[in-house]
Amino acid sequence: MPISLPIEARANELLTRSPLALLIALVLDQQVPLEKAFSSPQVLVDRLGHEPTAAELADFPPEELAAVFSERPALHRFPRAMAARVQAVARVIADEYDGDASRIWADASSGAELLARLSRLPGFGTYKAQIMIAMLGKQLGVQPPGWRAAAGPFGEEGSRYSVADITDEASLAQVRAFKKERKAAAKAAG
Hints:
There is one protein chain. The longest helix is centred in the last third of the chain and has 21 residues, at about 170-190. It contains eleven helices and no strands. The protein has one domain (about 10-190): Hypothetical protein, domain 2 (Endonuclease III, domain 1, Orthogonal Bundle). By secondary structure, it is mainly alpha-helical.
């Protein structure tokens, strides 16, 4: 199953076939529109002139990587901080998974193990790890035993809570409406 977010087709294709690109997108998915976060891995590839490996990103001179992220238009609202976070994730992948990001989920024997693995990545708290599990399960067919439970509410069939549920403009609008309602309820509560 290909990822079909409302972004450029080649960005979706990269996210579908490159586990590293998908993880980078999830790292960047905070304080920017999801279209920006999930398009930025393709922009990074374009700027570098090739798809980087985890080892390459891990070993990139930090100031140079920050400059690539900061080039206009910047890959994130906070390009230097996110370049450092992407580099930290790449280092974990290079050191613990032999540079193969897909091993994070391919080698996980259960949803609980996958949740633990993702939660240990820099910048991945419980919610981000659960959203990643939901995205893997719902959009890429990666479904270790117990994946829905590990994904929490994001794994629910038919939910419209996160990027894992977005396949087109209509589902994007539903996810945005849910987030807006949740934010309003939190504000009202206090």
